[in-house]
Amino acid sequence: MPFRNVAIGRYEDDTLKCVLAEFISTLIFVFAGEGSVLAFAELTSGADLTPEGLVAVALCHGLALFVAVAIAANISGGHVNPAVTFGLFVGGHITLLKGILYWIAQLLGAAIACLLLRLVCNGATTSPHALSTGEPVYAALILEVVITFGLVYTVYATAADPRSKGNVGIVAPLAIGLIVAANILFAGAFDGGSMNPARSFGPALVAWDFTNHWVYWVGPLLGGALAGIVYELFIMCPEPSHQPLPTEEY
Fold first, then answer.
1. pLDDT for position 245
2. Is pLDDT at 1 greater than 60 in this prediction?
3. Is residue 243's pLDDT more than 60?
């Protein structure tokens, strides 16, 4: 059941390694993801994002996240996203203390990635996630909830579920990267398709533009929590206590 294994936790021997892994993975992901946005702006002299550009940005995010999750999976679990961390906390897969430290590492990694981009991209200003013209705030909020639900549900099904060990667990980073790329292909035209408060925080901090920034926190956190609750409550059910009958006894 959701919340049944929620715990405050304590500092453990591997905590620092896990936090460092989350920091590095988030830095790599945001550097590549936001870098693709800045590269498109540079190549098109600041023109609006075209369908081809959206495909390139989505693909870059998906590939970068695939790598970021894969390199941290055996150390920290490869969250690379405060919404994923929160969704796993709701299901009791990470303690409160470690979750908070993960958040700090993820936000710091995203901020430093954007600062580095500003240094190496001719002082280009980062591009915070923003609502498209005419997109209502409530619609963007619902969109972030839905697409983040899909992301965190994928994390549960391919990585957190004990039954996903083996071949399914091996493809978890790929599946996570693909769902993010697919969601950006759709949601990118409306609100940028964040699904990740850290991914939104880094560019907003460096550009010092927090317009509607709360949408990219509330939406993903709600979506992540909802995915954790649904998966724990309806999918990750306890095994039956009785032994199954042999088929010949039916």
1. 47
2. no
3. no
> Do 222 and 145 touch, CB atoms closer than 8 A?
yes
Domain range annotation of the chain: 15-236
Distance between CA atoms of residues 85 and 77, nearest Å:
10
The architecture of the domain spanning 15-236 is: Up-down Bundle (1.20)
- Sign (positive/negative) of CA torsion 84, 90, 93, 99? positive
**pLDDT higher than 60, residue 158:** yes
Single-letter amino acid, residue 242: H
